[in-house]
Amino acid sequence: MKSALFFLIILMPAFPAFARQPAGKLPDPLVFNNGQKVKSDAEWNKRRQEILETMTTQMYGTSPERPEKMQFEVFDTDKNAMNGKATRKQVTVHMQEKGKEASFDLLIYIPNKAEHPVPAIIGLNFLGNHAISKDPGIKLTNARVENSKMFPCAVNGKATEACRGTNSRQWPLDSILDSGFALVTMYREEVASDRKEEMFRTGVHTLFPELQNREDNFSTVAAWAWALSRGMDYLETDKDIDAKKVAVFGFSRLAKAALWAGATDKRFAMVLSNESGAGGGKQFRRGVGENIRRLCTVFPHWFARSFSRYMDQDQELPFDQHFVLALIAPRPVYLATAQGDVNSDPEGEFETAKASDAVYKFLGTKGFPGTVFPAVNQSVYAQIGFHIRPGGHDVTNFDWIQFLNFSNLHLQQ
Ligand code: GCU
C-alpha cells in the first residue's frame, strides 16, 4: 500500500493536467473550470482567481511579493527640465531580500503646467533611460546596452554620450506632457537581462533564486511586470503623481510585460499595448504568426518553463490571451497593431479584443464596439480599444495619438 502511494505521488504531474480544448473552441472566461457559468460579481471574483492561477502556473510563472525592504532614492530633481516645461526626477529603487540587493532607476518627467497631482504613463524602455531623450541630465545606464545596426553607440556593451536620445522617436515626450500626463520609464536590462545566456542571473532575479527551481518559475516577462509594480510602489509615494490614474504602456516584448502587469496589479488604471503580439494580445488559437514553439525556443526566458509543454498545441490551448484581458477587466485596455507586423497577427489581436467584450460587459462597461475588422488608421474603442495602422513593427506618432486620446477619455475626467 505504501509503495503504491509512493508510485502514485511520483507519477503525478507537477500541475493538474489542463484539458486540451477542441481546435476552434475558445475557452470562456465566464465559465468556471468545472463547467458552471459565472452568475454574479462574487462568482466573478472567484473565477478571476481561477484564471489568474491558470495564467500564472501555465504561462507567466510565479512572481514574488514585494521585497522585504525597499528604499526610494530620489537622486535628481530638476524643476527646469525641457526649458521649464517639466520637472525631471530620477529615482533609484533599492530592493533587499534575504541579504541580497538589487536596484533599477526610474526616469520621470512631470508637466509643470498641469494641475498636480497629474495622471501618469509608466513603461519599460528597450535601450536605456538616456535613449528616450537627448536631455543631458539623464543618467547613462550602467547596465548592458546592445549595439544595434541602427544605434551603434555603445562601446563594449556600455552606453556612451552618443547613445542619448537614440530612441526618442518612439517616446514623444512633448506630446505626452502637453496632454497633461507624466511619463515614467525604466530600462529592461536594469530589471532583468533579456539575453538568454544570462537569464535569471541578473537584476531582480538575483533576489529570488528559489523561484527558478520550479516549472512555474519567475519568468523574465513576469520580472519586468513585477518591476513595473515596484515603480508603482514609488509613484504612490510621489505627491506630484495621481497614483490612481496610472496607465501602463509597452511595446512588443515590453507590451507583453505591460499586459501582465495590468493583469496582476489592479493599481494600474489602464493598459496601453503596442504590438504585443504572441504572448501579449494575439490569440494563439488562430495559429497565425509567431507560435508557442518559437516563443519558447528563441526566447526561453520570457515565459515559465511550464508554457513550453504547450508547444505545437497553439490551437488546443485550454486558455488564450483573452484571459489576460479578463484579468485586466473592467479597466480600460488598448491593443495597437500594424499591418506589416504579421508576426504578431493583428487579426489575432482583434479577435482577443472581441473575445474579451463579454467579460467587460458583464462587469458593467461598454466593452469593445468592434465587430468587423476595421480599416487602417481607424481607432475603434469604448472600454477596450484597437487599431491597425500601415507600416511595420514600431511605435509611431499615430499610435501615441490614439493612446493619448484613450488615456484622456478614461483618466482625465
Ligand atoms: C521578436 C519576437 C516578438 C517580440 C519582438 C520584440 O520579434 O518574436 O514576440 O514581440 O521580438 O520584442 O521586438
From TrEMBL:
Q: Which organism is it from?
A: Dyadobacter flavalbus
Provide the protein name: Acetylxylan esterase
Query: What lineage does UniProt assign to this protein's organism?
Result: Bacteria, Pseudomonadati, Bacteroidota, Cytophagia, Cytophagales
Signal sequence, start to end: 1-19
Q: Where is the 4-O-methyl-glucuronoyl methylesterase-like domain?
A: 176-364
The record, for InterPro entries, names:
AB_hydrolase_fold, GCE-like_dom
**What keywords were assigned to this record?**
Hydrolase, Serine esterase, Signal
SUPFAM superfamilies cross-referenced by the UniProt entry: alpha/beta-Hydrolases
Glycoprotein as a keyword?
Answer: no
* Domain of life where this protein originates: Bacteria
What is a single molecular function from GO for this protein?
A: carboxylic ester hydrolase activity
Does the UniProt entry include the keyword Iron? no
Q: Name one Pfam family in it.
A: GCE_fung
